[in-house]
Specification:
- The complex is a heterotetramer, with 1 copy of chain A (about 300 residues), 2 copies of chain B (about 350 residues) and 1 copy of chain C (about 525 residues).
- With about 300 residues, chain A is an alpha/beta fold.
- Helix content of chain A is about 40%, strand content about 20%.
- Chain A is built from 9 helices and 14 strands.
- In chain A, the strands form 4 sheets. Chain A has a 6-stranded parallel sheet, sandwiched between helices.
- Chain B has a single domain, classed as ABC transporter involved in vitamin B12 uptake, BtuC.
- Chain B has a two-stranded antiparallel sheet with strand order 1-2. In chain B, strands 3-6 form a two-stranded antiparallel sheet.
- In chain B, α6 runs antiparallel to α12.
- Chain B is globular, with a radius of gyration of 22 Å.
- Chain C is of the alpha/beta class and about 525 residues long.
- Chain C is built from 18 helices and 23 strands.
- In chain C, a hairpin with a 2-residue loop joins β8 and β9.
- The longest helix of chain C is centred in the middle third of the chain and has 16 residues.
- The radius of gyration of chain C is 24 Å and the shape is globular.
- Classes of the chains: A alpha/beta (about 300), B mainly alpha (about 350), C alpha/beta (about 525).
- At the B-D interface, α7, α13 and α15 of B face α7, α13 and α15 of D.
- The structure holds adenosine-5'-triphosphate (2 copies) and magnesium ion (2 copies).
- The site of one adenosine-5'-triphosphate (ATP) has 17 residues of chain C, from α9.
C-alpha cells in the first residue's frame, strides 16, 4: 500500500526498522523496498522510515524504534561521523544495526557495514569515459554533494583515472547538491563559459540527468555524459543515447544481503561474515542496459 | 501666498544633493542589476555573450514568475509560504495527467498538452484559493495558513506517486499528447518560451497593478486595510483573487520546471518561497504592504538569479553564496529604510 | 503682566518648531510652565497643543529649538527621559493595553517589586487606592478592555499619578468624563497643586479653565498668541485670542420641511462587556436635512454612524433608505445604495497614506472610471477631471492632484476624505467628527461644504463633541448618552443647557445599562 | 453599583453550555496532549512504557527549548527565522572549541567543557543580539532581518569547517576538556539532562513572562507597541533582550544535539524554525502578539513531538506526516479564532 509503510501481517519474528535517507529518491526507495520485501519473506514485519539527511532526526528515530523494541535496524545513515553515536546507542540497548550504502568510521558497533565499491565503480565509469573521449578533450565534473563521503570517494576515483591523461583537461568543477534542477542550471552557466566541452562526468544520477537536460536544451547532443547510480531514468537515458555510461549500484542486493545478515545474526548471534563488505558497481552502457531494472541487475 | 508657491523647492545646495541621492536610492534596483552585470562581465569570461544572457534569462523565469504573484500578495501586506510546494505539486499533477491520465470508469482519459497545462494552472489557482479562504473566512494569519499549506501540499505531492518522480514526460504519440517540452525548452524568435511567459505575465501584472481598480485596491488594502474596509472596497474578494493568482503563478513555474527537466519531481520548489520573497524585498516592495512595484520584483529576481549564475561561473563556493545572499537581503531593506527617511526629509524641507 | 512674580518656571521652551510634511504644527513657541500652578493651554483643534505636549513628554522631537527644565537645557528623546526630568503626561489618546488588567496598566513601566519580581498584591492594593481617590470603584484585576471609555480615561490618569513627577501634563483628561467624575478629578488636581506640582491642563471647556486654572497660554495655528493670569482674563478674551478675532463665524439658517427618505429603527449593538453600545436607537431624516449628533466621548456616536454604514455585523434593528430595507446589506451594498461615511479617524480609517490625492478621492468609486467590466482600465483623464473638480469645489489646498496625501494639512486631508465619499454620489452622508484636528479656517469651510452638500438634496448626519459646532449648521439636533438618544429636537428649539444636561452619561446610565 | 457586580453571570442554560465549551477551548492544548497520548497508547505497542516516555521527553527538548525563545519573540509580535541556523552554528562552534581550540599566537587555548558551553551560549546570544539590532536600530522588519540571518549563519556554519562535521567530540583527557556528552546524554535521577534543562528554562521563562516587569513589557509591546513607547517602556532594550534570548535558546539546542550525536554537523537545525513556530502557534500564542503563554508553547512542542514519534512508531509514512502536520497547524489557529469569538460572545451574553 502507499499509505502505510508498516506491514504487520506476517511478523512472527518481530519487527525490523528500515531507515533510509529520503523516499523521494529512487535509489533509496529501491533500497527500502528491497529490504522490506526480503524482511517480510523471512517472517519479519517492517517499519520504513526516512531521516532526510537530518542527523538529529536520525538520532530521534533510532531512539524511538529502539524504545519500540524492534529486533534490528537496517540503516542507510545520514552522515558518517554524526551517526556513530546513534548506532552505538542501538547496540547498547541490544538492537543490532546493519549499515548499508554508507559506512561509519568506527568498527565493532554495527554488526555489518555493507557499502558499494564506489572506487571500483567510479574508476570503471571514468575509464569508459576516457576511452570514448579518445583520451583527450575538455570535460566538466559535477560532483553530487561534497558533504557526503561517498560522493568524495567517487570524485577521487574519477580523478585517479582521469588525471593520468595529460590531454584531458578539466575546465570546470561544481557541486550540484545531488539535485536535478541545480545540476541543470549550473550546467547552463558552465556551457556559457565553456561551450566547447567534450564530456561531463557526474557524481550521481540526478546530476547526470540535470546535465543532460541542459545539454539537450543547448543542442549539444555530442557531449559525452557519464554518471553513477543506475536508476531507471538513467537507464532510459542510456537506451536513448543521451547518457553514455553509468555504474549501477546494487541497491536491491545490498539491502537484501543486509536483511539476511541481520536475520542470521538474530538467529545465531553472528553474521559469519566480515563486518565491512563491498559490493561491486556494475558498469552499464547501451550493451547491457536492458538487464537493469530498479537497481537490480540480471532479471527483467 | 498660495500653497503651490510654498511647495516650490528651495534652491539650496543641500536640497539638490539629497534630491540626487534620493533619485539614486529610488533607482537602486536597476543600479544593482547594472552593477552585478558589469562586475561579472569584467571578472568572468563569456559572461556577456548573447548566449549566456539568453540562458540567464531562462533561469530568471523561475523566481521571476514566482515573484510576480508574491509581489501582489506582499503589496497587500500578506505572505505566501506555500508557493514552493505548489511548484512541486503542479509538476506532479502535470506528470500524472500526461503519463497516467484520468481514470473514468474503465477508461482512462488522456488530455492534450494544452488541456494539461490549463488543468494544472487551475489546480494551482484552487490551492491559492484555499489559502485565501483560510485567510479571509477563517481569519487565519497568512503566515500560518500558508505555512500549513506548505506542509499539506508538499505531503500531497509526495503522496501522489509514493515519493517517486514521473519521468520522461514525452507523452504518447498515439494519444497525441506529446509536445509538453516546448513549454520549458522551446524557443520563439530565438528566445525561450519561459522568457516569453515571464514577459507576458510581467506585462499583465503591471497593467493589473497600475491600471485597473483591482490593482488600486491591492495597494489600498496593503496601505491601510481598515481604510480600505471603510471605503467600501471588496477586501475579501481582492484577497481571494491575489492568493489564487499567486497559486496560479506557482503552478506555471511547476509546469516550466517539469518541462525543462522532462521529469516531475515531488520535492521540486522546496524553499523557493524564501527566494521569491527575497526577490520581492530586493525589488523595493515593503513587507508591511502598500508600497512596491511588479517591475522592481522582477528585476530583483534578475539580480538574485544573475548573482547566483555569476557566482557559479566564477567558482564561488556554495557556502559563500548563502552568506552573500543573506547579506544582500538585509542590506536591501536597510537601504530601503534609508530611502524612506530621506523621502520624508525632502518632503518636509520643501 | 504675563510673567508672575514669585512663581518658579520649571519648564520652558525656546523657539520651538515642529514641521510635518505640509503642516507647521509649532512655530517659534516660547512656552513657560510654573510650579505650584495649574497652567492651562488653550487653542482650537489643530492649534498644536498636543504636539507641544508630546515634545515636553519626550514622545516627539522638535524640528528646531529646545526645552529646558529649571533653567537647564534637556534632551527629551524618550518618554522615559522626560520622566527622569520629572515630566509626566496623560495623553489625549488613550495609551493602554486592553489585554492587561487595570492594575497592570496603571503600573506599567513602574512595577512594584519584591525580590525583583512583580508584587501583584501590592500593585492591586495601590491601584485600588489611586482609583478610589479618583472616585472609581472597580476591581483592579478587571481586564482593561472591558471598561468603558470614561473609566479607561480615569485609569490613564491613575497611571500618571503613581509616577513621582514635578510636572504633570493632562491633555484633555475630561473629554469622556461626566460632571461628577470631573468634580472629583478637579479636587485631585488641586491637591496636587498644593503639593507644589506644576500642572499643565488642556481642555476645550472654557468654564473648566476659568474655574480651575491659574495661568493661561493660548496657541493659534502653531504660534503662541497670548499668555496671562486667569485672574486677568474672561471667556470672551480667550475666545478672541483662540480664533483670532472674526474668523470661525458661520451664519446658519436652519431649514425645515424635508421629505423623509431615511429611517433607523431600534438599532442595537452590544459591546464585549455586555453593555449596549447602541440601545434601541431610532430616528428619521429627510432629503437635504442636516442632523447634528452631540455627545461625550464614548456616548456611542461612532458606533451609530458606523452601524448605519454597515461596519458592525452583529447589530440588530432596521435601516431603511428610500423604502428599501438595508438592514442585512453589507457595507459595499449600502455604499451602492447611497450611504457613505467620512470616518472619525481619517488617519487610520479614512485615507491611504501612501497614495496621491487623486487616488484617494477616486478609491470608493473606481469601477465608474473603468472602460467596461471586461476592459477594466481606469480612464485616467476622467479620474483626473473629477479629482480636480473636487479640489476646486471643496477648495483643497494642494499643489496638484498627484501630490502624496501625507503632504497635506489635516483640514485638507479631511476634505479629500469627504471628496472620496462625495464621488460615490451618496443619498445619505455620515460625517463622524468631521472637524477633529482641523484648523479654524478649514473648519468653517468644511461646514460650508456640508451645507452645500445638503442643498444638493443629500441627507447629512454629522457627529461632534463641540456645542458650538452642533449648533452651527444643523437643522436638527440629536443628543446621545451611553448608547441612547436622550434628545431629538429641531435646532430652533434647542438650548445649550438642555443639550449639556442630556449628554451627561448619568442622564441615561441607569436605564441604559441593561442586561440581556 | 460597581462594574464587577455588573459583570455577574446570568445562569441561563445556553450561557452554561458556552462556558463549558469555552473552558474546553481554553484547555485545548492540554486536551490535545492527552488525546495524542491516549490514541497512541491504545494503538501502538510499547508506547506507554517508562522507557519510551523518557525517550520522548528527550525528543521534546529540542523543539521545546526553541519554542520558549520563539514564544517570547512572537508574544512581542516578532518572528525569528534564524533559530535553525543558530542551532547548526552553535554546534559547530562547540565542536571547534573542543577539538581545535582557540589559537592565540603560537599557542592553542582549549577551554574546559563548562567554558565551552558558556562561550557557545554567548555566541547564540550575540547572534540573537544582531537580529535585535537590525530590527530595532536599522528598522528592518523581523521577518527579513531573521531571514537574512538564516542564510548568513547557515553559510557561516558550513564555512566554519568547509562543510564538514566536527566529529567524536570526546575532548582530550590530557587537556581535561572531556565530558561534553553529559549535556545531551547524561541523566540525573534517571531523567536525561536535556529534560532538566528544558524544565529549568520553562520555569525561568514562565517566571520571567508572568512575574517580572520585563515579561509585562513583552506582552505590552505585542499588545500595543505605540502605547508601549508612549508609556515610556524601554521598547528597544526589551526587543534586544528577547531576540538575544531566542538566540541563546537556539544555542542550547545546538549544544544538546551536538552532545547527543557526539558530532557537530553544519546542517543541523535546518527548517527547525518552522516547527518551533508551529509549536508556539499550537500552544495558543497569537502571531499578532500580546496573547499567549510559555507553558502553552512547551505543551505545543510536546504535542508535535509525540505526534511525530507516535506516527513513526505506528508506521505512518513520512508523506502523511507532513500532511497531518500542516493540517494540525491550520486547525490550531482556526480553533483559536473560534475561541476568541466565543470569549467575546460569552462576555456579551452574561
Ligand atoms: N504625525 C503627524 N503627521 C502630520 N501632521 C500632524 C501629525 N500630528 C499632528 N499633525 C498636525 O499638526 C497640527 C497640530 O496638531 P495637534 O494634535 O497638536 O493639535 P491640538 O491642538 O492638540 O488639537 P486637538 O484640540 O484637536 O487635540 C494639526 O494640523 C495636525 O494635523
Ligand atoms: N465600554 C466600552 N468598552 C470598550 N470600548 C469602548 C467602550 N466605550 C467606548 N469604547 C470605544 O471607545 C471609542 C469611542 O467610543 P464611542 O465610539 O462609543 O463614542 P463616541 O460617542 O463616538 O465618542 P468619540 O467619537 O468622542 O470617541 C470607540 O472606539 C469605542 O469602541
Ligand atoms: Mg490635542
Ligand atoms: Mg466617535
Amino acid at each position: 500500500s502507499t499509505a502505510s509503510a508498516a506491514d504487520n501481517n506476517d511478523g512472527q519474528k518481530g519487527q525490523i526498522a528500515i531507515l533510509v535517507n529520503s523516499l523521494d529518491n529512487p535509489y533509496y526507495a529501491a533500497e527500502a523496498k528491497a529490504a522490506k520485501r526480503k524482511a517480510q519473506s523471512l517472517g519479519y514485519s517492517t517499519l520504513v522510515l526516512s531521516h532526510n539527511e537530518d542527523v538529529n532526526r536520525q538520532h530521534q528515530l533510532i531512539t524511538s524504534v529502539v524504545a519500540k523494541g524492534v529486533e534490528g535496524i537496517v540503516l542507510d545513515n545520514a552522515g558518517s561521523q554524526a551517526s556513530v553515536s546513534a548506532v552505538r546507542y542501538a547496540k547498547q540497548h541490544g538492537v543490532p544495526v546493519v549499515l548499508i550504502n554508507r559506512e561509519i568510521p568506527e568498527d565493532g558497533i554495527a554488526i555489518a557495514q555493507l557499502s558499494h565499491n564506489n572506487v571500483q565503480a567510479a574508476s570503471q565509469v571514468a575509464h569508459k569515459f576516457v576511452q570514448k573521449l579518445g583520451e583527450k578533450g575538455k570535460y566538466v565534473e559535477l560532483t553530487c554533494n561534497l558533504a557526503d563521503n561517498n560522493c568524495v570517494a567517487r570524485s577521487k576515483a574519477f580523478h585517479r583515472v582521469l588525471d593520468q591523461y595529460p590531454d584531458l583537461k578539466m575546465v570546470a568543477r561544481q557541486d550540484a547538491n545531488g539535485a536535478l534542477l541545480d545540476a541543470k542550471e549550473i550546467m547552463d552557466s558552465i556551457l556559457q563559459e565553456h561551450p566547447d566541452i567534450d564530456g561531463v562526468i557526474c557524481g550521481n544520477g540526478p546530476v547526470a540527468l540535470g546535465a543532460i537536460a541542459s545539454l539537450q536544451n543547448a543542442g549539444k547532443d555530442d557531449v559525452i555524459v557519464a554518471g553513477m547510480d543506475g536508476s531507471n531514468e538513467e537507464i532510459e537515458a542510456i537506451k536513448s543515447g543521451k547518457l553514455y555510461a553509468t555504474a549501477m549500484l546494487q541497491a536491491q542486493k545490498i539491502a537484501r544481503v543486509g536483511v539476511s545478515e541481520l536475520d542470521k545474526y538474530l538467529r545465531t548471534g553472528s553474521t559469519g561474515r566480515p563486518e565491512r563488505q563491498l559490493f561491486r558497481g556494475i558498469l552499464i552502457t547501451k550493451d547491457n542496459a536492458d538487464k537493469v531494472h530498479d537497481f537490480s541487475y540480471g532479471k527483467k | 501666498m498660495s500653497l503651490s508657491t510654498k511647495l516650490m523647492p528651495q534652491n539650496s545646495r543641500a536640497a539638490t544633493t539629497s534630491r540626487v541621492f534620493l533619485l539614486i536610492l529610488r533607482l537602486r534596483i536597476f543600479l544593482a542589476l547594472f552593477a552585478v552585470l558589469v562586475y561579472f562581465a569584467v571578472t568572468t569570461d563569456r559572461f556577456l555573450t548573447i548566449n549566456n544572457l539568453l540562458i540567464m534569462a531562462q533561469h530568471i523565469t523561475i523566481f521571476g514568475i514566482l515573484s510576480i504573484g508574491m509581489t501582489l500578495v506582499i503589496l497587500m501586506a500578506g505572505i505566501d509560504l506555500s508557493v514552493g510546494s505548489i511548484v512541486g505539486f503542479a509538476g506532479m499533477a502535470a506528470g500524472y495527467l500526461i503519463m497516467e491520465g484520468i481514470p473514468i470508469g474503465d477508461h482512462v482519459l488522456f488530455l492534450s498538452v494544452p488541456s494539461v497545462i490549463v488543468v494544472t494552472c487551475l489546480i494551482g489557482l484552487v490551492i491559492g484559493l484555499v489559502n485565501g479562504l483560510l485567510i479571509t473566512y477563517l481569519n487565519v494569519a497568512p503566515f500560518i495558513a500558508t505555512l500549513g499549506m506548505l506542509y499539506v501540499i508538499r505531503g500531497a505531492a509526495l503522496l501522489s506517486n509514493d515519493g517517486s518522480t514521473f519521468s520522461s514526460l514525452a507523452g504518447y504519440e498515439e494519444l497525441t499528447n506529446t509536445g509538453f517540452f516546448f513549454l520549458g525548452t522551446g524557443t520563439v524568435l530565438g528566445i525561450g518560451t519561459p522568457v516569453w511567459i515571464l514577459a507576458g505575465l510581467t506585462g499583465l501584472a503591471i497593467v493589473l497593478a497600475q491600471k485597473t481598480p483591482l490593482g488600486r485596491y491591492i495597494y489600498a488594502i496593503g496601505g491601510n486595510e481598515s481604510a480600505a474596509v471603510f471605503s467600501g472596497l471588496p477586501v475579501r474578494r481582492v484577497k481571494l483573487f491575489v492568493y489564487a493568482f499567486s497559486g496560479f503563478c506557482a503552478a506555471i513555474v511547476g509546469l516550466i520546471v517539469t518541462s525543462q527537466l522532462h521529469t516531475a519531481h515531488p520535492m521540486t520548489g522546496d524553499t523557493y518561497e524564501l527566494r521569491a520573497i527575497a526577490a520581492v524585498v530586493l525589488g523595493g516592495t515593503a513587507l508591511a504592504g502598500g508600497r512596491g512595484t511588479i517591475i522592481g520584483s522582477v528585476i530583483g529576481a534578475c539580480v538574485i538569479s544573475i548573482l547566483n549564475d555569476g557566482m557559479v561561473m566564477s567558482g564561488i563556493s556554495n557556502f559563500w553564496q548563502m552568506v552573500i545572499m543573506g547579506m544582500v537581503i538585509i542590506f536591501a531593506v536597510v537601504v530601503d529604510q534609508a530611502q524612506q527617511r530621506l523621502e520624508k526629509r525632502v518632503l518636509v524641507s520643501i | 503682566m504675563a510673567h508672575e512674580e514669585g512663581a518658579e518656571v520649571v519648564v520652558e521652551t525656546h523657539a520651538l518648531y515642529k514641521r510635518y510634511p505640509g503642516t507647521t504644527a509649532l512655530a517659534d513657541v516660547n512656552y513657560r510652565v510654573y510650579s505650584g500652578r495649574i497652567n492651562c493651554l488653550i487653542g482650537e483643534n489643530g492649534a498644536g497643543k498636543s504636539t507641544l505636549m508630546k515634545i515636553l513628554a519626550g514622545a516627539d522631537t522638535p524640528s528646531d529649538g529646545h526645552v529646558s527644565v529649571r533653567g537647564e537645557p534637556v534632551h527629551l528623546d524618550s518618554v522615559a527621559a522626560a520622566e527622569r526630568a520629572g515630566i509626566g503626561i496623560v495623553f489625549q489618546e488613550l495609551n493602554l493595553f486592553p489585554d492587561l488588567s487595570v492594575a497592570e496598566n496603571i503600573f506599567i513601566g513602574h512595577e512594584l517589586k519584591r525580590l525583583s519580581l512583580i508584587s501583584s498584591s501590592a500593585q492591586k492594593q495601590h491601584a485600588s487606592e489611586q482609583l478610589k481617590r479618583l472616585g472609581l470603584d472597580i476591581d483592579p484585576d478587571t481586564r482593561l478592555g472591558d471598561l468603558y471609555v470614561g473609566q479607561q480615561q480615569l485609569v490613564e490618569i491613575a497611571k500618571a499619578l503613581i509616577k513621582k513627577v514635578d510636572v504633570l501634563i493632562m491633555d484633555e483628561p475630561t473629554s469622556a468624563l461626566s460632571q461628577t467624575e470631573v468634580d472629583v478629578l478637579f479636587e485631585v488636581v488641586r491637591s496636587l497643586r498644593a503639593e507644589g506640582l506644576a500642572i499643565i491642563y488642556i481642555s476645550h471647556r472654557l468654564e473648566e479653565v476659568m474655574n480651575l486654572g491659574d495661568h493661561i497660554t493660548v496657541l493659534r495655528n502653531g504660534e503662541k498668541v497670548a499668555e496671562d493670569l486667569i485672574a486677568n482674563v474672561d471667556i470672551p478674551w480667550i475666545v478672541s485670542a483662540m480664533v483670532g478675532g472674526s474668523a470661525g463665524e458661520f451664519e446658519n439658517l436652519p431649514s425645515s420641511g424635508h421629505a423623509p427618505n431615511f429611517e433607523v429603527r431600534n438599532l442595537t449593538l452590544k459591546r464585549t462587556n455586555g453593555l449596549y453600545a447602541l440601545d434601541h436607537v431610532s430616528f428619521r431624516a429627510g432629503r437635504g436635512e442636516v442632523i447634528g449628533i452631540y455627545g461625550l466621548m464614548g456616548a456611542g456616536r461612532t458606533e451609530l454612524v458606523e452601524t448605519i454604514y454597515g461596519m458592525s455585523r452583529n447589530a440588530g434593528g432596521q435601516i431603511v433608505l428610500d423604502g428599501a430595507d438595508l438592514s442585512n446589506a453589507s457595507a459595499i451594498k449600502r455604499l451602492k445604495a447611497g450611504i457613505s461615511l467620512v470616518p472619525e479617524d481619517r488617519q487610520t480609517s479614512g485615507m491611504i497614506q501612501g497614495m496621491s490625492v487623486r487616488e484617494n478621492m477616486s478609491l470608493s468609486s473606481l469601477p465608474s472610471y473603468a472602460w467596461s467590466r471586461l476592459m477594466p482600465w481606469i480612464r485616467r483623464t476622467l479620474e483626473q477631471r473629477d479629482a480636480e473638480g473636487m479640489i476646486s469645489w471643496l477648495r483643497v489646498k494642494c499643489a496638484s492632484a498627484s501630490v502624496p496625501m501625507t503632504s497635506l494639512s489635516g483640514g485638507n486631508m479631511q476634505k479629500v476624505v469627504i471628496a472620496k465619499a462625495l464621488l460615490t454620489k451618496p443619498k445619505v452622508m455620515l460625517f463622524d467628527e468631521p472637524t477633529r484636528g482641523v484648523d479654524v479656517g478649514a473648519k468653517t469651510e468644511i461646514y460650508k461644504a456640508m451645507k452645500a452638500i445638503a442643498e444638493e438634496g443629500v441627507t447629512v448626519i454629522y457627529t461632534t463633541s463641540e456645542l458650538n459646532e452642533v449648533l452651527a449648521v444643523s437643522d436638527r439636533i440629536i443628543v446621545m448618552s451611553t448608547g441612547r438618544i436622550t434628545a431629538d429636537l429641531p435646532r430652533t428649539q434647542a438650548t445649550r443647557d438642555q443639550i449639556i444636561e442630556c449628554s451627561a452619561p448619568t442622564a441615561g446610565a441607569a436605564e441604559a445599562l441593561i442586561f440581556s
